[in-house]
Amino acid sequence: MSILAKKSSPQAQKVWFTDTKMYVLLTDGRELGVPLEWFPTLRDATEHQRMDWRLIGNGIGIHWEALDEDLSVAGLL
Predict the structure, then answer these.
(1) What pLDDT, on a 0 to 100 scale, did the predictor assign at position 1?
(2) Which of 14, 18, 45, 64: disulfide with 25, CB 3.0–4.6 Å?
(3) Coil vs helix vs strand at 53
(4) For 61-70, what is each residue's pLDDT tens digit?
(5) Cα 34 to Cα 19: distance, rounded to the nearest angstrom
(6) What is d(CA 77, CA 70) in angstroms, rounded to the nearest whole number?
(7) Nearest 5 degrees, angle CA 59-CA 65-CA 70?
(8) Buried b vs exposed e over 33-59: b needs ≥16 C-beta within 10 Å?
(9) With contact defined as beta carbons under 8 Å apart, do 15 and 64 qualify?
């Protein structure tokens, strides 16, 4: 019988924005850049609202309390 090691899912560690994109730095060193157009709630939010995020599930997701918005790293990939 063989035991397969479960691959750990990528985790976020930092989030930042430009006028048109959201960037997420992953713990494995990858950097994602996705268009804000994909996320109307974040696109229409103020800079202060966008920057008021926290990691959830040890970095498997990102949450914006004031915007009631949650994104998963797996969904971004």
Answers:
(1) 45
(2) 14
(3) coil
(4) 999 999 999 9
(5) 12
(6) 15
(7) 50
(8) ebebeebeebeebeeebbeebebeeeb
(9) no
Strand partners for 17: 22
72 Rama sector, left if φ>0, alpha if ψ -120 to 50, beta otherwise: beta
Which residues, in sequence order, are CB contacts of 26 under 8 Å at separation 6+? 10, 11, 12, 13, 32, 73
Q: Which token pair is 13? A: 């560690």
Could you read off the pLDDT of 11-54 as tens digits, one per residue? Answer: 999 999 999 999 999 999 999 999 999 999 999 999 999 999 99
- Identify residue 41 by its one-letter amino acid code: T
Q: Which amino acid is at 53?
A: W
